[in-house]
Amino acid sequence: MRRFLVFLLVFLLVAPVMVRAAAKPSTEELLRRIEELSKELESLKKQLSEVKEAQEERSEVAEEHEEFLEELKNNVGKFKIWGDIRTRMDSTRAYVPEYTNPLLSFPGAARAGGHHYENDTLYTNRMRLNLKVKPTEDTVVKMRLAYYKIWGMSNDYVAPGLFLGMGMQNNFTYGIRPADDNLYVDRAYFNWSNIGGLPVWVSFGRRPTTHGAPRQFREGLDKRDATPSGINFDVPFDGATIGYQYSWPWTGRIRICYGRGFESGFKTPIDRAKDDVDFYGFAWDVIDDPDRDMLLIVQAFKAEGVMDFPDGKIYMYNPAFNQWMEVYRTASTNLGDIYEIGATWQHKVDLPFFGLEGVDYFISAGLSITDPDEWSTMAMPTPNGMAYIHTSLLSGPYMTFSPTPPGDDDLDTKTGWAIWVGTRIPIPQLNSKLGLEYNYGSKWWMPFAMATDDPYIDKIATRGHVAEVYWIWDLPVGEALNEYAKAFLRIGYQYYWFNYTGSGSWLGKPMAIRSELNEEPYQMFTAPIDHMSNFYLSLELFF
Questions:
Q1: Which of 182, 305, 506, 512 has the least C-beta neighbours within 10 A?
Q2: 263 CB-near residues (< 8 Å, 6+ apart)
Q3: Strand partners, 327
């Protein structure tokens, strides 16, 4: 461009002179022409300067765009953010038969129960935010932050005397059970895959071990939300996994897991459990075939050195004030080991005879083994002096006025089992799905199911029967703008028929509710519920 302008300028200067040379112009004409050419030269210089400035501006804008695209590639381009938010209402009615409990009053025994307990409406809000980052080709970071709060409450004083306080599990329930308005880290872990070019990966962090298959069906989801099967393991913990994936004759994966459920710290305090609580596990997705909608999970876990009370608060009845009072407890004793074995099969099928397509069904079975080796002793002041409550894994409790616990004869191994079946039937005419589920747990059934999504108790922990029916209606909210978007209304009804006491608790010996309660005092921290019904209504939005 610059050479062209110079050439043009020279041409304009020389050409007229050559043309007019023959005409022999006057001096005045030559001066006038030189002045005009000078003005034209200044104008050309100005235009050249403007062109140069414009080129520099365009170059700067291009560099800024390149920097922005590079930043986008290095940051936002590697992030995926999605989540869900819901508002839920529960209406619950429970019946407690009359029973004798010496823990409620001193001296002597107190008669309690014999009537219904009701909570007409319990409202909760829950929000979960998922984040996935892939910094390199073979690594990925996954996180979930969660907030779950009861309307009008900043604690869990919603059912003292009926259920163990939600806060007492703390590390096992952060962000998963209703609590305060804090945003908790539910999950945070990273994976390194394709190690050595092999289908092997390792993972470290707070594990994705809650809401496992087949729990996703009743929660309105199509894919499972955790590694282990939900029949006997639904609790978060911190740990590590090493896994291997295979693809013949079908897709599957094998995982070896380790975790820590309680850190005992230095071994000097006398009021704290002396050993850590560690988890060891084996989870095998024997079949995981998305194309044929088939999933078979087999798993086995061990919790070693289970403590009596996780750090946190519980509610205990104080007869002096005639009310339930908040008491902070820490793990003081390692009671023994708990083993969990389970299997889950789920499948999607068409039933042309009934005109149904895409029907989900599942069957899940679990086995629990408790192996206690120590007693936990808790002191309580009474008008007659200091009383002591001795309890262990599915053993006791015994109230005595001696700090010496019972002998080891009562610390025997107990084996429990459970079965869980269900189906979810699509009804495309109503843009909805109908679900039916049933589960049963035996007398000694003890799963790790502290992280229930329901407000009071995980139905899978029930020692007895639970039937549930639910309806999910996909709301007409317009076209989905991302792959996670969905909105639905979920209505359900659960009926619990308890055969034995202590469902969901590893402390204390289960007692037959409709027979043994009339034969001997019931020494437990919660009332023995005979049956309970729960109606829920949930509005949920995924984004």
A1: 182
A2: 276
A3: 314
DSSP SS3 for 320? coil
Tokens 């020692």 sit on residue: 463
Chain segment 454-478, per-residue pLDDT in tens: 888 999 999 999 999 999 999 999 9
What is d(CA 434, CA 79) in angstroms, rounded to the nearest whole number? 35
Distance of CA 324 to CAs 165, 315, 319, Å? 11, 6, 9
Average confidence (pLDDT) over 278-298 = 95
DSSP 405: P
Q: What is the pLDDT of residue 107?
A: 44
Separation between Cα atoms, residue 414 and residue 84, nearest integer Å = 40
Q: Is the pLDDT of residue 318 over 80?
A: no
Report the amino acid identity of residue 3: R
Task: Express each pLDDT in 37-75 by its tens digit.
Answer: 777 778 877 787 777 777 777 777 777 777 766 766 666
Best CA proximity match to 476, nearest among 467, 466, 487:
487
Q: At what angle do helices 27-74 and 2-21 cross, to 10 degrees?
A: 170
Q: Classify strands 531-542 and 464-474 as parallel, antiparallel or unpaired.
A: unpaired
- DSSP secondary-structure letter at 272? S
Amino acid at 326: E
Tens-digit pLDDT profile for residues 325-374: 777 788 899 999 999 999 999 999 999 999 999 999 999 999 999 999 99
Closest CA to 110 of 118, 101, 122, 119: 101
Residue 154 has pLDDT above 60, yes or no: yes
End-to-end CA distance of the chain: 54
Name beta bridge partners: 536. 90, 492
> Can you tell me the distance from the alpha carbon of 219 to that of 410, in angstroms, rounded to the nearest whole number?
41
Q: Judge contact between 90 and 122, C-beta under 8 A.
A: yes
Using pLDDT thresholds of 50, 70 and 90, give the confidence band for residue 106.
very low
Q: Among candidates 388, 448, 454, 385, which has minimal Cα distance to 418?
A: 448
- Domains observed in the chain: 2-68 (no CATH), 75-542 (2.40.160.10)
